[in-house]
Amino acid sequence: MTQNILLAPKAGFCMGVSLALKKLDKAILDNPNCKIYTLGPIIHNPQVLKQYEQKGVKIGDDKTHFQPGDIVLIRAHGIPFGLEQNLKQKQIKIIDATCPKVKKAQLLIQEQSKKRVLLLYGEKNHPEVKGLLSYAQNQIILFESLQELLNLQLNSNLEYVLAAQTTQDQNEFYQIQDYLKRQNISFIALNTICNATEERQKEAIELAKKVDFMIVVGGKISGNTRRLAKVVSKYAPYLHIETSLELDLNELSKYSTIGITAGASTPQEIIDEVILKLKK
User: Fold this and answer.
1) Cβ(237)–Cβ(31) under 8 Å?
2) Region 160-189: what's the mean pLDDT?
3) Residue closest to 200 by CA, chosen among 212, 192, 208
4) Active site residues
5) Strand 186-189 vs strand 159-164: parallel, antiparallel, or unpaired?
6) Domains in the chain, start-ordered, CATH in brackets?
7) Alpha-carbon separation of residue 217 from 92, 178, 239, 257, 264 (angstroms)
8) Is 265 annotated to bind ligand?
9) Is 222 annotated as a binding residue?
10) Which residue, among 133, 186, 181, has the nearest Cα to 155 in the 3D structure?
11) Annotation-wise, does 240 bind a ligand?
């Protein structure tokens, strides 16, 4: 029987996700007769996306033929620079819900890559990364891990600017900087990892050290949730779930203390359902 359930303080929606969803909710309320699109999934959580689909919100992309009067919301991950410029030329209403931390990263990369090669630590197929890369003004080198960077040939005669996807592993980002210094690579490092991401990962690690088992709640396609699972896996056995339906209570009953953390795109009601099921 589970004796104790501990929840990480910062589990659930981050500031950027909350802002994006508030903007979408307001657009739905204020424009009952308009077609509303998000450019790609507004956040990486299937349950939230289903709720908005039921409200009539459609998911569009760069190939969607928007009609005059349509409302198009730029999601929290941001979009490529060229796509945003193309949208502004159409007779549609654009609502920019890009996370402020992502927008800051885009602008920093745009400014600092003018005379430097961009080294970007991020997931190749992630929508935020595609947007960040579009702001680069020079050559680009994209890598997903320190291990991948070790296999790349960098030119010690060039100037580099190092940046990261906002939800990347902060500790690995520090390790990357240490490696570049040891290789005598000339670079400047941009502070683009969201502090909320760093704090959430630290909390998850500290919690994992105290418990017998960790549960990570959030979308399987959510990059920041997958990284939470990765960091806690070093300290405790864990399970990454999207909803409480995936819990095996018989299996979990052998653990006396269970810790719970959740990704930045995980709604509070899903976290509450997990806790309630464990308590039952």
Assistant:
1) no
2) 96
3) 208
4) 128
5) parallel
6) 4-12+196-279 (3.40.1010.20), 15-99 (3.40.50.11270), 102-193 (3.40.1010.20)
7) 36, 32, 8, 17, 10
8) yes
9) yes
10) 186
11) no
